[in-house]
């Protein structure tokens, strides 16, 4: 039976550690990290994400600024708001919740965010830094996945990793991070010919496709570590359920370790958003980032 990788517990420890560092930053340097979140429209799922992000920022003692714009807002108005936040010294991280309505070009919006405030890591400069092994801001979901993998496996060198999905926000940056950790990386996607065979070769399988239970139990290499990024809302036997991209009940008999949905990657995404905001606040004020923050959170999970 697989070990269940408890992302919820790990994220809680990480957030607590971030909270301590935020307090130190305020007491020693008079800087309070500030996160600005922009929501356009009233998409129910986006509203929940934005509320969670703002609440958790406040719980970590950060300043949280929320901007809610109407669905029909002209692109120029959104760009003006971003420019104002770019200039605001109290704001260290800017996040624009996706998806955006059709009159707004997401590429223009992402490009308008100052790269050192782009705590989602989507700006081309941050994407380029990750791809070339440079120092930039890393997208939150893949960063959270990597932390869980390293927490569970330690050194990833030489392991065969399969990333299922090639989106700009999860699949591609995940593959870059795993390559940086010296994995042998394969990226699979909707045009991959034999998905099952690719999965069966993988010591590490990261699934980010958005297809409920696509990865069957017998697709998994015995003992593999499975990170399930998928969040799919389905209805089964008259009940609303949240399931991943992996068939959890069957996979847990084969895998060595697996993240559940919910309670796996999701909580890590928000914790990493706070981590990126803290790091951005440090960098913008010329303060050394507390590099031991991950180890501190790590140790406390293992000791719990
Ligand atoms: P996306 O739609 O942008 O990309 C999906 C990718 O999966 C594409 O590259 C596509 O080629 C591939 N794909 C689709 N169907 C496939 C199939 N049948 N076989 C093989 N490949 C297939 O999605 P995304 O934004 O990367 O998100 C993926 C999933 O992760 C979604 O369920 C999303 O809700 C979830 N997600 C979760 C978090 C989190 O915090 N847990 C964060 C972001 C995304």
UniProtKB/TrEMBL annotation:
<keyword id="KW-0560">Oxidoreductase</keyword>
<keyword id="KW-0378">Hydrolase</keyword>
<dbReference type="GO" id="GO:0004488">
    <property type="term" value="F:methylenetetrahydrofolate dehydrogenase (NADP+) activity"/>
</dbReference>
<feature type="binding site">
    <location>
        <position position="231"/>
    </location>
    <ligand>
        <name>NADP(+)</name>
    </ligand>
</feature>
<dbReference type="InterPro" id="IPR036291">
    <property type="entry name" value="NAD(P)-bd_dom_sf"/>
</dbReference>
<dbReference type="GO" id="GO:0004477">
    <property type="term" value="F:methenyltetrahydrofolate cyclohydrolase activity"/>
</dbReference>
<feature type="domain" description="Tetrahydrofolate dehydrogenase/cyclohydrolase NAD(P)-binding">
    <location>
        <begin position="139"/>
        <end position="284"/>
    </location>
</feature>
<comment type="pathway">
    <text>One-carbon metabolism; tetrahydrofolate interconversion.</text>
</comment>
<comment type="similarity">
    <text>Belongs to the tetrahydrofolate dehydrogenase/cyclohydrolase family.</text>
</comment>
<dbReference type="InterPro" id="IPR020867">
    <property type="entry name" value="THF_DH/CycHdrlase_CS"/>
</dbReference>
<dbReference type="InterPro" id="IPR000672">
    <property type="entry name" value="THF_DH/CycHdrlase"/>
</dbReference>
<keyword id="KW-0554">One-carbon metabolism</keyword>
<keyword id="KW-0368">Histidine biosynthesis</keyword>
<dbReference type="Pfam" id="PF00763">
    <property type="entry name" value="THF_DHG_CYH"/>
</dbReference>
<feature type="domain" description="Tetrahydrofolate dehydrogenase/cyclohydrolase catalytic">
    <location>
        <begin position="5"/>
        <end position="120"/>
    </location>
</feature>
<keyword id="KW-0486">Methionine biosynthesis</keyword>
<dbReference type="InterPro" id="IPR020630">
    <property type="entry name" value="THF_DH/CycHdrlase_cat_dom"/>
</dbReference>
<keyword id="KW-0658">Purine biosynthesis</keyword>
<protein>
    <recommendedName>
        <fullName>Bifunctional protein FolD</fullName>
        <ecNumber>1.5.1.5</ecNumber>
        <ecNumber>3.5.4.9</ecNumber>
    </recommendedName>
</protein>
<comment type="subunit">
    <text>Homodimer.</text>
</comment>
<keyword id="KW-0511">Multifunctional enzyme</keyword>
<dbReference type="InterPro" id="IPR020631">
    <property type="entry name" value="THF_DH/CycHdrlase_NAD-bd_dom"/>
</dbReference>
<dbReference type="Pfam" id="PF02882">
    <property type="entry name" value="THF_DHG_CYH_C"/>
</dbReference>
<dbReference type="InterPro" id="IPR046346">
    <property type="entry name" value="Aminoacid_DH-like_N_sf"/>
</dbReference>
<comment type="function">
    <text>Catalyzes the oxidation of 5,10-methylenetetrahydrofolate to 5,10-methenyltetrahydrofolate and then the hydrolysis of 5,10-methenyltetrahydrofolate to 10-formyltetrahydrofolate.</text>
</comment>
<feature type="binding site">
    <location>
        <begin position="165"/>
        <end position="167"/>
    </location>
    <ligand>
        <name>NADP(+)</name>
    </ligand>
</feature>
<keyword id="KW-0028">Amino-acid biosynthesis</keyword>
<keyword id="KW-0521">NADP</keyword>
């Amino acid at each position: 039976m697989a070990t269940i990788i408890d992302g919820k517990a790990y994220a809680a420890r990480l957030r607590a550690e971030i909270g301590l560092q935020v307090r130190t930053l305020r007491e020693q340097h008079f800087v309070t990290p500030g996160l600005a979140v922009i929501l356009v429209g009233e998409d129910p799922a986006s509203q929940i994400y934005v509320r969670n992000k703002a609440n958790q920022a406040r719980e970590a003692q950060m300043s949280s600024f929320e901007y809610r714009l109407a669905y029909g807002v002209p692109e120029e108005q959104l760009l003006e708001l971003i420019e104002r936040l770019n200039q605001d010294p109290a704001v260290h991280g800017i996040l624009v919740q996706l998806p955006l309505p059709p009159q707004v070009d997401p590429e223009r919006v992402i490009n308008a965010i100052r790269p050192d405030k782009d705590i989602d890591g989507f700006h081309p400069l941050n994407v380029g830094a990750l791809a070339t092994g440079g120092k930039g801001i890393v997208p939150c979901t893949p960063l959270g996945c990597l932390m869980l993998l390293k927490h569970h496996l330690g050194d990833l060198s030489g392991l065969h990793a399969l990333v299922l999905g090639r989106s700009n926000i999860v699949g591609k940056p995940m593959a870059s991070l795993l390559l940086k950790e010296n994995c042998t990386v394969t990226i699979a996607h909707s045009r991959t010919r034999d998905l099952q065979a690719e999965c069966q070769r993988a010591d590490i399988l990261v699934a980010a496709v958005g297809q409920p239970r696509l990865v069957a139990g017998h697709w998994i290499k015995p003992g593999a570590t499975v990170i399930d990024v998928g969040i799919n809302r389905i209805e089964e036997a008259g009940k609303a359920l949240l399931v991943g991209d992996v068939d959890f009940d069957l996979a847990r008999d084969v895998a060595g370790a697996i993240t559940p949905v919910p309670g796996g990657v999701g909580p890590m995404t928000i914790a990493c958003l706070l981590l990126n905001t803290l790091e951005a606040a440090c960098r913008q004020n010329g303060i050394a980032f507390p590099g031991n923050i991950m180890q501190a959170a790590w140790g406390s999970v293992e000791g719990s």
